[in-house]
Amino acid sequence: MEIVLAYLGVALVVALSGVGSAYGVTICGNAAIGAYKKNPAASGSYTALSALPSSQGLYGFVGFFMLQPHVFPGMDMTSAAAVLGAGLALGLVALFSAVRQAKVCANGISAIGAGHNAFGTTMVLAVFPELYAILGLLVLILMAGALPTAA
């Protein structure tokens, strides 16, 4: 039972962060397509802003590699619960961070498409939701450092 819970945590960190990134980049991509119709010259800005929510999926991938060595047959329930909790926590934070960051970026893309010079401001504002995903990853790394590994 312990190993199942731990693997669930490992799966959730990858799945939730990946879903957040996939959902986030499509939010931005939809805005970019609409903005491109109005201002095709700014397509580089649209692409750069559309890529930002993809980083949360990478944090989940790092989380996988940090947690995986701590999942082994015979692990105790406390360790399994910690792996599950860390994976779920980062997965949820990354999911919501990616979606909210995408909404900031999509609004910036729309503003650029309307002719406003909003790239720099959008990049700065998009960093704030990203910060929470980074903090979630740091918590996972700290928790993983306190977990036992297979002997």
Task: Walk me through this protein's architecture.
The chain is mainly α and 151 residues long. It has one domain: Up-down Bundle (Four Helix Bundle (Hemerythrin (Met), subunit A)), CATH 1.20.120. It has 5 helices and no strands. The chain has helices at 2-38, 43-51, 55-67, 77-113, 119-145. α1 packs antiparallel against α2 and α3 (55-67) runs parallel beside α5. The longest helix has 37 residues, at 2-38.
Order of helices and strands: HHHHH
What low-confidence regions span 5 or more consecutive residues with pLDDT below 50? none
The domain tally reads 1
Q: What is the CATH C level class, in words?
A: Mainly Alpha
How much of the residues is beta strand, in percent?
under 5%
Question: Please, how many helices?
Answer: 5
Largest sheet properties: none
Features:
151 residues, mainly alpha, Four Helix Bundle (Hemerythrin (Met), subunit A), 5 helices, 0% strand, elongated
Give a brief rundown of this model.
With 151 residues, the chain is mainly α.
Task: Give me the secondary-structure topology.
Elements: H1 2-38, H2 43-51, H3 55-67, H4 77-113, H5 119-145
Helix pairs in contact: 1-2, 1-3, 1-4, 2-4, 3-4, 3-5, 4-5
